[in-house]
Amino acid sequence: MGRRKREPYVRLTQPLVREAGILRPASWDEALDRAAEGFRRNIEAGGPDAFGMFSCARATNEMNYVAQKFTRAVIGTNNVDSCNRTCHAPSVAGLAKVFDSGGGTSSYQEIEDADLIVLWGSNAREAHPIFFQHVLKAVNKGAKLYVVDPRLTSTAKWAHKWLRLNVGTDIPLANAIAREIIHSGLANRSFIERGTEGFEEFAASVEEWTLPVAELETGVPAELIRELAHAYARADRAQMSWTLGITEHHNGTDNVLSLINLSLLAGQVGRYGAGLNPLRGQNNVQGGGDMGAIPDRLPGFQDVEDPAVRRAFDAVWGSSIQPRKGWNLTQMLEAMERGDMTTVYIIGENPVQSEADCEHTIKRLSNLDHVVVQDIFLTKTAQLAHVVLPASAAWCETDGTFTNSERRVQRVRKAVNAPDGARDDIELLCELARRLGHDWHYDGAEQVWDEMRALSPMHRGMSYARLADLGGIQWPCPDEDSLEPSFLHARLWETDPVKRGRPAPFSVLRHSPPVDELSTEFPLRLTTGRRLDSYNTGVQSGGFESPMRRGETLDLCPQDALDLGVVADEMVQVSSRRGAIVAPVRIDEGLRPGLAFMTFHFPDEVDVNVITIEATDPVAGTAEYKAAAIRVDKLVNL
Amino acid sequence: MTIVDIGLPRRLVEFTLDGEQVTVPEGATILSACKDMPTLCYGDTLEPANACRVCMVEVEGSRTLVPSCSRKVEPGMVVNTDTERTRHSRRLVLELLGSATDLSTTPQVADWMADVGADPARFGPDAATVAQPAKVDNVLYVRDYSKCIMCYKCVDACGDQWQNTFAIAVAGRGFDAHISTEFSAPLPDSACVYCGNCIEVCPTGALSFRREYDKRAEGTWDESAQSATTTVCTFCGVGCNLTLHVQDNEIVKVTSPHESSVTHGNLCIKGRFGWQHVQNP
Fold it and tell me: For residues A272 and A522, what is the distance between their CA atoms, to the nearest angstrom?
């Protein structure tokens, strides 16, 4: 049975405009004029909030800075967001709520120096392989590794202990660990009194999660829960890392907060080697948010609702930034459906294939009067556009910076020339700004960066020269003469309350099972994830051949396959309450009965997001990709 | 109680190197204090393997020559790197390596041979060699073991020092010892995950990227026309540093800086090979 293998995407080298329903080649002037004119038309008709910007977590900090500046200063709205919404927005929301800062708290070196590492909902061995090398350095030096995951992943196989929880029971597990820590007298009393607030209420809220109750709900043996609780609380330096197994739920922010609670309880944050680290999924998803390409923050993660902050930006930009948050990506999609948003500018994103319930996304984008897509490929999203602008590839065809999962800002350098006909993202934004009455020019990325760091205290000390000399710098870096410690939030340990600042609040959290309930009609739980040699919607990773790649499969445990009467490689129908797809079966011993797994790397062959659920986190707007209810049927009449 | 020892600051120790007083941190090797010491099996990101014997030096009071890559400096040590004894040793070592293996793609080795007057051909045409056809069994790597000097660096990089995949190990004994996958399986049937971290450390070109191998075969590989630019990988958020080797505006090879605190020279399959998408015309 052969895979339907699609041809790799080829680079866009000619602007396209839609005429009589089809995209035809156009000159740069015509395409840029049409793009600008469409924005103007829609803003005149519906006000600036009729515009939305999907900025790009793959592009440089500099491009993201200019894209959000375009949104706020040229268009006059805060409706700017990026695909961070589909992955780690809950991590940023959770960390910012507790610590006023949305970044991971430690460095990779500290992972190597930890005594205990907990990877929760993270298959780092495949999704973040070089991060996992730091984990293995620690393990080989004697650190203990605990992996919390519904699947026996290649990461879990390295664990000293694997906690196999039921999908969507992270909060009961975390709360039970918390209760065990408290009842065993292992809570870090001095840290709790000094650096936190809300402990009593939190302690009362986890009281119901006794070990036997938690075992029943999570499927993790009580003894294992107890062991992790004691190991985490007793470790000198414990690291808690998570990925999308925590965030891609309808209550992703609560899941993140449940892990933060544990760090506060045990005092495992704010010290060298102890910390909380979300592993970011895109090369610059951290930087995109730091640059203000999110609806509620200006560059430097500064609050858009703070008048003093806005004044500083308005003075430099000559703008008057809206005093309220814009819509996030999820809200923008809803506004499109209502008809409140009529035009979008999509830079390097592929929401048609990356959003949950993609048929719905296509319908919403098709509603719009004017869609401009700037990309290196004619993606499925670009095919819906009115104007398509060929861009350069950030990581090898432009200069700039990216910010990684340890908050390290590193130089990106142009190594090759973009193909003839493709142009730099920042240059294109300036072209459109000029057409909309703003005389923008930048002589290269460094000029953008210097403008940005003058406005962002946490980046101020990061000159390009310093970034090159030091192999990148972790934020915050407020001045050019010094470096901050590699970890955040040491202030919480200060004895002086003034230096300590705002205490970190515990969060009281309720268990909320996955929205897509299992039923007799849809009895299997489907969860999604990545494989080592592929990436997201496969637009990039499909470009190279991998001897390991096997395409999309529906992974089932041997027992489920037997019960369904299906065998490896057999094509089956996989349906959810939203749609149905056909995929070949693969047998995976690492799954338990009732749990199925698929990736989302091959949407042109098998579009898994036809069946995932769009139930979103109310705080961060991230969809519950990790928990759909499905049924599997044999194909008949083949 | 902590399990992992994160160490104390190191003291400095003083010793004599080729007649000069030199100070290095405690625990440093002799090699780390030398400039341009010839070596093949030493890897700046790996534990010393002590395999090639090219970097041998003379230490006063030591009966035998010592490998500078692994011997730690001790206070007051007197070390000579360029004596008749070290030159004689290096000449013979290079002659033995050069007669048995193909060193045509080993950087600098021709200079080292000229420097000590090594003549690998002196053992005659019947000298035993490891010559064998290159193994070309997948689209990403080539393994040309006629160039393999058995330095173990690939095994260490694949094993517990970095990648922890353990796809390769040493099989056989004596002259028949060789690097092998389990049961000599072709790479696609082995545990290999195509990170390329073995190729990153291979000193002789026995392991190479398919693109380089093909371009060499067609005569279009030209290192003098290549630029090397360090940037950041475009895939996940770990932020690995990539050095893109570009010839005629085309990426032909990807390495990673060994001094990078993120990668220490290691990458995964996506970073190492995932650049083709920008070049699909």
Answer: 47
